[in-house]
Amino acid sequence: MKKLGVLFILFFSMNCYAQKFDDLAKTPPMGWNSYNTFAGNFDEALLRNMVDLLVSTGMRDAGYIYIIVDDNWTAERDSLGFLTVDKKRFPSGMEAFSKYVHSKGLKLGLYSDAGYKTCGGYISSRGHEFQDAIMFARWGCDYLKYDWCNSDDLKAVGAYTTMRDAIYTAKRPMIFSMCEWGNNKPWEWAVSVGHLWRTTGDITSCFNCVDRHNGAYNSWGVMQIWDMQNGLRKYAGPGHWNDPDMLEVGIGSLTLTESRAHFSLWSMIAAPLISGYDLRKMSKDVLDILTNKEVIAVDQDSLGIQGFDQKKIDSVEVWYKPLKNGDWALCFFNRGPKPAEINYDWKNEIIKDDVFNYELNFNKQIYTLRDLWAKKDIGRTEKPLRTEIASHDVLMLRLIK
Ligand code: GLA
């Protein structure tokens, strides 16, 4: 009996111990990450510059608070097995960089990988998970992106749960960003493991293309990634988000229109908003997209419900997202190569969210239409909406009760 009691206590204490830090990502995380523009071409000076620019451009105040140092910065372990930082890249060390980040009202994100080596071939956490989590905590890390390269014989559930437990044991709250590319359907098992999980392989900076890396792997354009989100909305919510990868707004071959569509679509599905833009080149147009408060408010809405597609009208996809206080977001997205005419009679549309049980009936309730890119009210739902949407453009509205 006594033995049974001990086992009982052990069981319950282990259960309390094994958890992720709650309340860290009640809305989708927002920040900036080094990878999309710089890959391995960065150093501390450049990152300090990015910190300053996050502040001076107003990005931080718009919500981009995590600055995430992606792959390519770890060096050999010390004699006790602790991770060290590449001194050439970070001459003042990670702790000093972290202090700088925090002194500017930002938070620090770091990167590691479940295998022995990162995707870029740098030292990573396999076999040292608890030690690395301690080191990340000492460096003042607030967000860990954990990749899946060289994972060979590892099981994803075990590998990610181990790192979750390591972070919890290190006692510093960190968002745990699982970068497992959706290979093992993390949406089915990772609600109690991570705060966000990648749903796909890497995004690349084009609207509609596939980058085939010599047959080794593919990275995907915005449209390819968008189509891969199908069926996943029911798994996301406050504290556990689907991550369709970082923003390519303003990067590569994306036009401004396409960047705006990309940003709108990511916001409609409550995606994490992690910019990869070279902030030194910031133009007013790109800044206007990245810091559009009303679009960000759709992404960050506290209900935390991903939008759903109502229907397609020729080349135009129609997406709805329920919001707090009875408002809705609505996005008409023209995927086609030509401008599309819209004639949308609200009275004929009954909108049903079967997964989260929301319903919208324009015969019972009239809404004001707020155009989130034009930043003005454009009418009400009593009259049909007639408009034209350019190729690859959106009309994004907030329906205000
Ligand atoms: C993988 C990830 C990317 C990035 C690179 C870094 O490809 O999916 O997001 O972190 O590794 O090498």
Explain what this protein looks like in three dimensions.
The protein is α/β, with parallel strands linked by helices. 26% of the residues lie in helices and 24% in strands. The protein contains 11 helices and 22 strands. Bound molecules: alpha-D-galactopyranose. Alpha-D-galactopyranose binds next to loops.
Brief rundown of the structure:
The protein contains 11 helices and 22 strands. It is α/β, with parallel strands linked by helices and about 400 residues long. The structure holds alpha-D-galactopyranose.
Q: How many strand units?
A: 22
| Global shape | globular
- Separate helix tally: 11
Mean pLDDT: 96
Q: What share of the residues does DSSP label as strand, in percent?
A: 15-25%
End-to-end CA span: 61 Å
How would the blueprint of this fold be written?
Layout: H1 2-17, E1 30-33, H2 35-38, H3 44-56, H4 59-62, E2 66-68, E3 74-75, E4 84-85, H5 93-103, E5 107-113, H6 129-138, E6 143-147, H7 156-170, E7 175-178, E8 196-198, E9 210-213, E10 217-220, H8 222-227, E11 241-243, H9 256-268, E12 273-275, H10 284-290, H11 293-299, E13 308-313, E14 316-322, E15 328-334, E16 340-344, E17 350-353, E18 358-361, E19 368-371, E20 376-380, E21 385-389, E22 394-400
Parallel strand pairs: 1-2, 1-12, 2-5, 5-6, 6-7, 7-8, 8-11
Antiparallel strand pairs: 3-4, 9-10, 13-14, 14-15, 15-22, 16-21, 17-18, 19-20, 19-22
Helix pairs in contact: 6-7, 9-10, 9-11
The structure holds alpha-D-galactopyranose.
